[in-house]
Amino acid sequence: MSLSAAAPDLSQVPEPDRPREAALGVKLGMLALLAVLCLVPFLFVLTISFGHKIEGGGWSFGFETTQYKRFFLGATWPETFQDLYLQKLGYSLWFAAIGSLVAVMLAFPFTYYLTRLGKRGQTVWLVVLLSSLSLSEVFIVMGWDILLSARSGLPALLDGIGFTGLMKDLGWFQWFRDIGLASPRAFKFKTSGFATVLCMSYLVWPYAVILLYPALSRLDPALIEAARTMGARPRKVISTVVLPSVRLPLFGAALLLFVFLLGTYVTVSVFADPSQHTLAVSIYDSVRGSTLNAPFGAAQSVILLITAGLFLFAGQTLSKAGGK
């Protein structure tokens, strides 16, 4: 028997599945990172929400549902029922919904025509949009604060060009007063829901463009060309070809921006009327503001987070149903 015949055939021995082990290690690492960044802070906030408030801003461990009862039933329950914090949650949902819808509605036509440009034009615009994301919310709000100020902003401009006087002469100025956009003498955008939604929409508009860009850039030009060949006008092409093709990305972008805007603090605190302040402002007041009630701030944070999660779950369910 020769040595070559006695030696085992190494080519038949299975090698260790190193790529699979590496992939498993990456997954475990990602799960650990997710737990550290998301799960641990959430559990910490959840623990504080059931804690006992100590006068002076402190708290101690415990299991009290006092803060949740205060949120849903009011501080004076069971004598009286108060829905103050439910109203704040409602304003959070209202402003976030309108702001996200306006941002997506404005971003859609811009993104559509952006994808019709040449590669160089698209690159320039995308670089500009990505650069705008470096601006903080405080910086953006400060800019809009100046633009909407009564003395140096848009109200002064409308007064200077005679638009305010024209509205008064036509008798339409009272309508702007009725919706809270004018004082007895001139236009007034601070504080108002209009200014709040305008600034929130501007804040997330670049994100809307970036979210819609992949779907619109992958849109088959042959479909649009076929519709035009059959005599469809541009508006008909948009409503019957483009919009149905990107309905899910549109819905997903609006949902993500909605969740993002739920936590907007600076915009609401500057432009919204104090009676319409959202839950994010109330959370800050509880944790760092005048009330110094960390368990109540944590309870509001948990409720806001659960609300966002429910909307994301509902959106995912609707997306799956719509994609079938």
Could you describe the 3D structure shown?
It is a multi-pass membrane protein. It comes from Pseudooceanicola algae. Belongs to the binding-protein-dependent transport system permease family. CysTW subfamily. The chain has helices spanning 3-6, 18-49, 66-73, 84-115, 119-132, 137-147, 154-160, 163-170, 173-178, 193-217, 221-229, 234-245, 247-261, 266-271, 279-287, 294-323; strands at 52-54, 58-60. The chain has a domain at 83-149 and 190-322: MetI-like (MetI-like fold, Orthogonal Bundle). Strands 1-2 form a two-stranded antiparallel sheet. It is an all-alpha fold. Strand 1 (52-54) and strand 2 form a beta hairpin. Helices cover 70% and strands 2% of the residues.
Q: What descriptive keywords fit this protein?
A:
324 residues; mainly alpha; MetI-like fold; two-stranded antiparallel sheet; globular
Write the layout of secondary structure elements.
Layout: H1 3-6, H2 18-49, E1 52-54, E2 58-60, H3 66-73, H4 84-115, H5 119-132, H6 137-147, H7 154-160, H8 163-170, H9 173-178, H10 193-217, H11 221-229, H12 234-245, H13 247-261, H14 266-271, H15 279-287, H16 294-323
Helix pairs in contact: 2-16, 3-16, 4-10, 4-13, 10-13, 11-12, 13-16, 15-16
Membrane topology: Multi-pass membrane protein
InterPro entries: MetI-like, MetI-like_sf
Family: Belongs to the binding-protein-dependent transport system permease family. CysTW subfamily.
